[in-house]
Amino acid sequence: MKLAAFVALGLSVLFVSGPPSAPTQQTVSLVDAPTMGSSLAKVVIVEFSDFHCPFCRKSARETLPHIKREYIDAGKVLYAFRNFALRPQAPDAGVAALCGARQGKFWELHDRFFSAPRPVPPGDLEAHAKAVGLDLPRFRTCMKGIARDDVRVDTEEARRLGFAGTPAFLIGYNEGNERMRPVHRIGGFESFAAFKSVLDPLVNRR
After folding, report:
1. Which of 17, 27, 91, 170 is deepest in the core (most CB within 10 A)?
2. Contact (CB, 8 A) for 129 and 58
3. CA 43/CA 86 separation, integer angstroms
4. Domain layout of the chain by residue ranges
């Protein structure tokens, strides 16, 4: 069983990766985070990820498709993505993905970046943007603008939450108003079965 301390608003809460842990009243913002699934879903997963992380790539390829099929597409889980850009060129890929989000193409870029045979270097980002149909002048302007600050803010938030590596996940309840209340955390790559053992009790809770 993995234990980790989560510190927010001056209060320490213990989260457990494994069996359900006691709920907490602390909440985490989903504002401006790209999401997949129904905003009315009872349960939320927030992933903090790095587009150059091999274990994030493994999670995106092997675990996320099963979560999407069983929980997201069924309206049971809202899935949110936030950047935790730890590797040197990861911030550029994170910025590009958020610029894609501004044109409604975040998940298309997310999937292309993680399905590429190697981490996408900065010089190749525009080619991927073109491939998913982005307006390139808008994309270029965005790459120089506020999306870069958004990646930095996400990364600082992940550290504030006590995460030190990627991928990292918070799982909990949808509180509305673009906020979620985490009751579990998972650090590192985990199988779909590990997520299912956490998600089913939350989804089925009356």
Report:
1. 170
2. no
3. 27
4. 26-204
The residue to which tokens 């089913």 are assigned: 200
> How far apart are the C-alpha atoms of 18 and 10, rounded to whole Å?
25
Alpha-carbon gap, residue 55 to 39, rounded angstroms = 27
User: For the chain, what's the residue count?
Assistant: 206
For residues 151 and 92, what is the distance between their CA atoms, to the nearest angstrom?
9
pLDDT band (50, 70, 90) for residue 175: very high
The DSSP code for 60 is I
Task: Tell me the backbone φ, ψ of residue 170, rounded to 5 degrees.
Answer: -110, 135
Residue type, 75: G
| Cβ count near 84 (within 10 Å) | 26
64/79 Cα distance (integer angstroms): 10
Strands (E), 59-149: 77-83
- Domain boundaries 26-204, corresponding CATH code: 3.40.30.10
- Total-model pTM: 0.87
| Placement of tokens 């981490």 in the chain | 119
Dist. CA 15–CA 170, nearest whole Å: 9
Residues 71 and 196: beta-carbon distance below 8 Å: no
12 has a pLDDT exceeding 80: no
Ordered DSSP codes for 1-54:
-EEEEEEETTEEEEEEESS-----S--EE-TT--EES-TT-SEEEEEEE-TT-H
pLDDT digits (tens, 9 = 90+) for 80-102: 999 999 999 999 999 999 999 99
What torsion, rounded to 10 degrees, do the Cα atoms 124, 143, 35, 128 define?
A: -20
